[in-house]
Amino acid sequence: MADARACAGRVERLRELMAERGYDAVILRNNPDLRWLTGSERTFDNEVAHTAFVTADGLWLHTDSRYYNTFVTRLGKDCAWTIDQDIVSPATWAAERARATRSRVVAVEDTCDLAFYDAFLAACSAASIACLTPRMHGDICDLRMVKDAEEIELMRRAQEVTDAAFDHICGFIRAGITEQDIRVELENYMLSHGADELSFGTIIATGANGANPHAQPGQTVVAEGDLIVMDYGAGFHDYHSDMTRTVCVGEPSAEQRAVYDVVRRAHEACAAAVRAGVIGRDIHNIAVDVITEAGYGDFFKHGLGHGVGLEIHERPNFNRGWDKPIPAGSVVTIEPGIYLPGKFGIRLEDFGVVTEDGYEPFTRSTHDLVIVGK
Predict the structure, then answer these.
(1) Considering only the top CATH level, what class is 149-372?
(2) Is 205 helix (H, G, I), strand (E, B) or coil?
């Protein structure tokens, strides 16, 4: 059952934005935004099949017969939303809501596809409905940056599964198995121990493959002395975890230990500097400075971190382009890495919540270099 109080708070935040902008209504079709507003868990899939129409005093949701009963069950009989499955196009339905509510300024989030937007304008014109249709540019994404208590708890639960999976997989890995073998075991463990989905396609990269930050697991065989980069996460009630650990099969070389130490120092220096109000770019540059001073600046080119929530990549970011303050309540990854082509890669990633005083990681797995395959 949806957390009515949490969802009411989210709707109120949207309505405050609407009042500030002078919007009579807002149309939303992006599934993560709808999940956030309605609280209807494990309802949305990859299809764009739903349309919300929000006013200062009304909440309407259009869906179809594939989802209608699920919404009714998840939201309960006394929910604030009016849910229907009228057999009309989403654009026609939205135009009728604009007419019925006498909305004259109807904002459309720019995550809506152009085909819907054009069809909505055509439907309004055909029904002689006069309204302005300003675009909203990522405004809901900005609202979603700040997580409430329910969202944080769901991500903690997702990370508990992810940490447990790390302990399990460390006992499974040995020389002679493939990257794909590790992936299957890791994902099966998560789905068998509390996850209801995977956060994203798992990255397992052994040896030289680890120098490719988003390597896809394949039939490469794990060898003694390999470093293995594992980037993965569990989903729980639509919220995600994100974690990377690099382990060594057998004793690491002096070079592997030295590079791992640089990545760990970069990670921990960044985590120590995070608190509400810091600029994302400044935190990213701390990692750049640590890695550059160690002589590996040419081998760390991606952003330091990103927001996590209903999507695995959300706002805000720790990267070169994020020049805005990081708000308290945002959940962000810290994931520096060093990638040496033809040799190995190392990445160390936690995710956690930004507070007024610091950074509280949800991740509990050790930062030590773990040796596996003994």
Answers:
(1) alpha beta
(2) strand
Provide the pLDDT for residue 374: 74
CB atoms within 10 A of CB 5: 11
Sorted by where each begins, the domain ranges of the chain are 4-144, 149-372
Distance, in Å, from the CA atom of 202 to the CA atom of 46, rounded to the nearest integer, reads 19
Q: In 3D, which of 254, 231, 255, 259 has the Cα closest to residue 333?
A: 231
Beta strands in the chain (DSSP E): 25-28, 51-55, 59-62, 82-84, 106-109, 135-136, 197-198, 203-206, 227-232, 234-236, 239-240, 243-249, 305-307, 314-318, 331-334, 337-340, 344-347, 350-354, 359-361, 370-372
Is residue 285 within 8 Å of residue 304, measured between CB atoms? Answer: no
Confidence (pTM): 0.95
Cβ neighbours, 10 Å, residue 255: 11
Can you give the pLDDT at residue 3? 85
Burial 274-305 (b: 16+ CB within 10 A, else e): bebebebbbbbbbbbebbeebebeebbebbbb
Torsional class of 225: left (φ above 0), alpha (ψ -120 to 50), beta (otherwise): left
Task: Tell me, rounded to whole angstroms, the distance of Cα 179 from its chain centroid.
Answer: 24
Distance, CA of 28 to CA of 238 (rounded, Å):
18
The pLDDT of residue 78: 85
Any bridge partners for residue 236, and if so which?
239
Question: Quick one: 200 exposed, middle or buried, by C-beta within 10 A (0-12, 13-18, 19+)?
Answer: middle
Mean pLDDT by 10 residues, the chain (374 residues): 86 98 98 97 95 98 97 91 96 97 96 95 95 94 96 98 98 98 98 98 98 97 98 98 98 98 98 98 98 98 98 98 97 98 98 98 98 90
Q: What is the DSSP annotation of 270-289? A: HHHH--TT-BHHHHHHHHHH
Distance of CA 212 to the CA centre of its chain: 21
> Which of the following CATH numbers is that of domain 4-144: 3.40.50.720, 3.30.70.370, 3.90.1150.10, 3.40.350.10?
3.40.350.10
